[in-house]
Write a structure and sequence with these properties.
This protein starts with 6 loop residues before the first strand and ends in a 6-residue tail after the last helix. The strands form 2 sheets. A 5-stranded parallel β-sheet has the order 2-7-1-8-9, with helices on both faces. A 4-stranded mixed β-sheet has the order 4-3-6-5. The chain is globular, with a radius of gyration of 19 Å. The chain is α/β, with parallel strands linked by helices. The chain has helices spanning about 20-30, 55-65, 85-90, 105-110, 125-135, 140-155, 170-185, 190, 195, and strands spanning about 5-10, 30-35, 35-40, 55, 70-75, 80-85, 95-100, 115-120, 165. About 25% of the residues are buried. The protein has 2 domains: about 1-30 and about 95-203, P-loop containing nucleotide triphosphate hydrolases (Rossmann fold, 3-Layer(aba) Sandwich), CATH 3.40.50.300; about 35-95, Guanylate Kinase phosphate binding domain. Helix content is about 45%, strand content about 20%. It contains 9 helices and 9 strands. Helix 1 (about 20-30) crosses helix 7 and helix 5 (about 125-135) runs antiparallel to helix 6.
């Protein structure tokens, strides 16, 4: 019997490097990364179905009514959500799915899909986090302070996750996450009696 895929939810503060870690994971594994739906307009070279599913506000609100999102949120007047049917279809096929979402979204997914695997990416230290944000060169002193305070608040939610992975180097972080995923697949309570569901052959 084919096993169901694992839903892997990854969050972390700005500057922790979660995007880089996820990119490295996708290069080494046959994971499927979920594409969010949004009501905002495409930016620059963004492509519908690749970066986001760009839909109208009316369509989004209709999908909320029909419970077609694993989670959704309104940010600066625009809606963002994770399409449920698409994610569940891929999981049913046996393929693991990665969601890169913020803490609010992750906690909402945890309520609707508690069997998911929730991983929080941490920086090696708060000083290193500050350096990473500063080195981007796109922050004013005021916006840097705002981002740093926001990151500090986000990190306070780490206990809500199943695992915390320190991103000291991308390779180390990837190795830790892959080890976590392997261990989770071997947990007895996740097998759900699959062996007992198989029929015994007379041969």
């Amino acid at each position: 019997m084919k096993s169901k895929g694992q839903l892997i939810v990854i969050s972390g503060p700005s500057g922790a490097g979660k995007g880089t870690v996820i990119k490295a994971l996708l290069e080494k594994n046959d994971f499927w990364i979920s594409v969010s739906a949004t009501t905002r307009s495409p930016r620059n070279a963004e492509i519908d179905g690749i970066n986001y599913y760009f839909i109208t506000k009316d369509d989004f609100l209709e999908k909320i009514k029909t419970k077609d999102f694993l989670e959704y949120a309104q940010v600066y007047g625009n809606y963002y959500g994770t399409p449920k049917p698409e994610v569940l279809k891929v999981l049913d096929s046996g393929r693991d799915v990665i969601l890169e979402i913020d803490i609010q979204g992750a906690l909402n997914v945890k309520m609707s899909y508690p069997s998911g695997l929730f991983i929080f990416i941490l920086p090696p230290s708060m000083e290193e986090l500050r350096n990473r944000i500063t080195n981007r060169g796109s922050e004013t002193p005021e916006s840097l302070l705002t981002r740093f305070k926001a990151a500090h608040k986000e990190i306070s939610f780490v206990s809500k996750y199943d695992y915390a992975v320190v991103n000291d180097t991308v390779d180390n972080a990837c190795d830790k996450i892959q080890s976590i995923i392997i261990a989770e697949r071997c947990r007895a309570d996740r097998m759900n009696g699959d062996f007992l569901k198989e029929e015994i052959s007379n041969e």
